[in-house]
Specification:
Layout lengths: L2 H34 L3 H6 L15 H9 L2
């Protein structure tokens, strides 16, 4: 294997590691955003699975409730 090929492989491995780390750090943020758009009972029911990210029946009702309570 040539030196250039090893360098490209090391760069690709480094980028893959960075992408994995970014995914690990972004997952909780994505779960919070998805949870804020669901009714309360569905948030806890789907919390332990990947269905928590891919949910149907999303609404903005939680945000409406917050803005109705706060000036």
């Amino acid at each position: 294997m040539s030196r250039a090929a090893r360098r490209r492989l090391a760069r690709a491995a480094g980028l893959a590691g960075l992408a994995l780390a970014a995914l690990l750090f972004l997952a909780p943020v994505l779960l919070m955003i998805a949870g804020s758009l669901k009714p309360d009972e569905r948030v806890l029911a789907e919390a332990g699975s990947l269905r928590g990210l891919f949910a149907g029946g999303l609404s903005l009702q939680n945000y409406r409730d917050v803005f109705a309570r706060v000036d």
